[in-house]
Design a protein that fits this description.
alpha/beta; 25% strand; globular
């Protein structure tokens, strides 16, 4: 693609996907990120990301594009999409309300994210976030490999994608906790959509930092996932509240287990998480930082999503 703005996007991944769809029209393709400008690896294109949720190509703009960019780039994207019978949606995050515009095709009334055989309801285009975070895939793969026969606590569960993956992988039970009843309702719907056993998941609408006794009663747990927002006024601020999470591990998993600590705050490096655990739960041993999803390159690895695996030795090891 040649453009007067000299800001080109390599659309080969989109073309390849469209070819794949035409070769197997009955197959639902996995949702994925096709272009990640936010990682600053493509100078001048930090304002745009492109995602695929069949049959929708979602172009998200985080800032006003250079003059003429949309007029030159969107037609090439839509040409590929139209040939595959897909819709193209442009969302402007930099405008109040993050409005979305369908520029070609039709978006299903209820649209889905796909991950292998699993499906997840997506939020309406009237909302800012679609409700399924593609960059969290390494965390889902990690949980999938460990969940069989385990009791899992999914804190800050949002729409419960972790839980769907864990129950589908054979988890004994998953307890999902989030302060948003609406998000948990969507999480429950995700479990129903995938035909999962209702008895193996629970949904607690709680403000987590004020509800530890109720959360503890649902345990004990073998796996704990911390996936908090980086900043949610009146509920959780990662820079000051993350330290409160590790302190609770002895009561949540007295016999020990695995912890996945997630942090999506560009201003906080992975050293912040190491310090939180070292000072507040030294019996939690760092195992590894999970590799980031390759579709999300970042010029500074410490600014991208951080997924750290700790192994907690148990309450007896944590006792002074």
């Amino acid at each position: 693609m040649t453009t007067s703005t000299a800001l080109t996007i390599d659309l080969q991944s989109l073309r390849t996907l469209a070819d794949e769809a035409r070769c197997a029209p009955e197959q639902t393709l996995d949702s994925r990120r096709l272009f990640h400008g936010r990682g600053q690896c493509y100078p001048g294109l930090e304002f745009v990301c492109i995602d695929f949720f069949q049959p929708v190509v979602l172009v998200t703009l985080f800032a006003e594009p250079p003059e003429g960019w949309l007029a030159e780039c969107i037609p090439e994207i839509t040409a590929i999409a139209v040939a595959a019978n897909w819709a193209v949606v442009v969302q402007r995050r930099y405008w109040q309300g993050a409005p979305s515009e369908v520029v070609v095709g039709e978006v299903p009334e209820r649209w889905l994210a796909a991950r292998g055989p699993l499906r997840f309801w997506l939020n309406p285009l009237t909302q800012q976030n679609v409700g399924y975070f593609l960059d969290m895939e390494p965390g889902r793969q990690w949980l999938e490999s460990k969940a069989s026969g385990k009791r899992v606590l999914n804190l800050f569960a949002y729409t419960c994608a972790f839980s769907v993956v864990a129950v589908a992988a054979g988890a004994e039970r998953v307890v999902n906790v989030d302060m948003s009843k609406k998000a948990l309702g969507q999480g429950r719907a995700n479990h129903h959509l995938n035909g999962l056993d209702k008895q193996r998941s629970a949904f607690l609408p709680e403000q987590i930092l004020k509800s530890w006794s109720r959360i503890r009663r649902q345990g004990p747990y073998d796996i704990v996932i911390f996936d908090p927002p980086s900043f949610q006024r009146g509920s959780f601020v990662a820079s000051k509240d993350y330290v409160k999470l590790g302190r609770r591990l002895p009561e949540l998993m007295p016999d020990g287990g695995d912890v996945l600590a997630c942090l999506n705050a560009p201003e906080l490096a992975s050293d912040f998480l190491h310090q939180c655990f070292a000072e507040n739960c030294p019996a939690a041993r760092f195992i590894e930082r999970l590799p980031s999803a390759p579709e999300f390159p970042d010029i500074n690895p410490e600014q991208r999503l951080k997924l750290l695996h700790f192994e907690f030795a148990g309450a007896s090891a944590a006792a002074p």
